[in-house]
Amino acid sequence: MTTSVTCGKDRESDPSGPPQTQYGWPHQGNRNRSHVAGRPSGSCFVRSSHRGNHVAKLGVSPWRLPLVGNAWHLLVHPLTFLRQQRELGDIVEFRHGNRRVYFVNDPVLAHEVLTGQRANFPKGGPVINAARALGRNGLSTTTDESLHHRQRRLMQPLFHHSRFPAYIAAMRETVEEITSSWREGEKVRIDSVAYQISSAVLSRCLFSGKLGSNATRDFMTLYPSVVGGIGRRATLPMPWLHRLPTAANRRYTRDLATIHRVTDQLIADHAAGDETYDDILSALLEARDDDTGKTMSESQVHDEVVTLISAASETTAQTLSWALRVLAKDTELDRRVAAELQGVLANRAPRHQDLQELPLLSAVVSETLRLYPPLWLVSRYVPNETELGGVLLRAGSEVYISAFANHHDAELFPSPEVFDVTRWLPGAPTPGRGAYIPFGMGTRKCIGNEFALAELMTTLAIFLQRWRLSPQHGGRLSKPKVAFTYGTGPFTLVASQRRSGPPEH
Ligand code: HEM
Fold this sequence. Notes:
GO terms for molecular function: heme binding; iron ion binding; monooxygenase activity; oxidoreductase activity, acting on paired donors, with incorporation or reduction of molecular oxygen. Residues 1-41 are annotated as: Disordered. This protein is of the alpha+beta class. The protein contains 15 helices and 15 strands. A hairpin with a 2-residue loop joins strand 5 (91-96) and strand 6. Protoporphyrin IX containing FE (HEM) is lined by residues 139-140, 152, 307-308, 311-312, 315-316, 319, 374-375, 378, 438-440, 444-448, 451-452.
């Protein structure tokens, strides 16, 4: 086994790795190294390599119950369970009912699953099959890799830099509209406001605002019940349970059908109008495949609309809630970010090009995504027996990779429970390959990551320019909620004015 020390200043470059983001935001690193064996003082990483003859350590999860296997522990205490698995090996086998699942704990092996060996680990299996009831053949849930490749090529231009000034203008208008009614001492339910902002931003960018606002609201109202149903189907390994005529099952079926109906209606209204729109839906309807010249089928457009709303809303809202909660508790950090904003923007609203001039705000967002990654688990399927790190994974099994577990690993991030923005400030070492994965990795990596970062930075900037949000006197912050996403749960902050009036444009 080889060991090497890598410091911030001698980062290797890997042309196949993901590019640096627009806002100088560091993605998962690109060193050709394996799992971290320890870390010396200062900011260097010490790594050991799986290359050569080293075989990954395979563990077996011990807390197995009859019928449910280890699923009970995963359902009841998911985050504790994930951390315990970490102690057992680089790859840990456990049972989800009668399903065989491998937790891939080693970040380099996780990188291998999602990039180098991705053909052996496609999307599929029970988790994705349950999610397909909503996303169908959309980008996130399609199991047809060639369709995915085509769709990804068609949809990438939606996230081209040239579209960002318009997106950011929509983000600005949304936040200003929503916060314009706040008064000094206003008690704000932050989790609801964050959700309201992310849905309204999406509605503005996807469907030119007004047209989509009712539909998006209906969609978002039903979304939690549908996602709850999908979660139960993905995690409770008893399919017969979900066919019983219970109130929960009936509600799930009804709400799912309504979401699909609302989406169809929205697309039909958009197409029927005389107006031309410069929005994402128009771009989806007009996108043509370079090779065939064909546009997407109606059902594909439907699936992509459902996918974008589902993938973008809750994740971004949860991150915004977490960031505001951190800043409410850390008055010194809040003051420093407000000072950075004042220095760069004075009283002006942020524009696209400003975002890269705000390293502290960017670090707050990166660190929030590290400590509180909304998508805390991703899964892949193993259709054929496959070797990973020298361990044979059985055909028909699943692989789970957890951003939460990686991000809370003391060997990858020293003092992992501390919210430490210096990890992301200029000059800090880049995390090792596969260590920092809030947006996933490889060809199925989040297509909206830049959009999410821009929205988070823009929203936070406008909030912090105008408002100081503090915990209520004697008020307690809620317990985090782990479901499909990792969220703050409901909580209220009190808004006091830093200065009056909306930012100048
Ligand atoms: C903080 C916010 C967000 C987080 C943490 C997040 C996280 C992720 C992660 C981890 C994946 C990969 C899942 C996997 O490998 O199985 C993913 C995929 C995806 N995300 Fe996001 N996401 C966010 C915001 C957004 C936004 C704003 C959009 C769209 C505007 C979006 C659209 C998508 C889509 C379409 C996919 C599927 C990509 C593919 O399979 O090619 N996400 N996201």
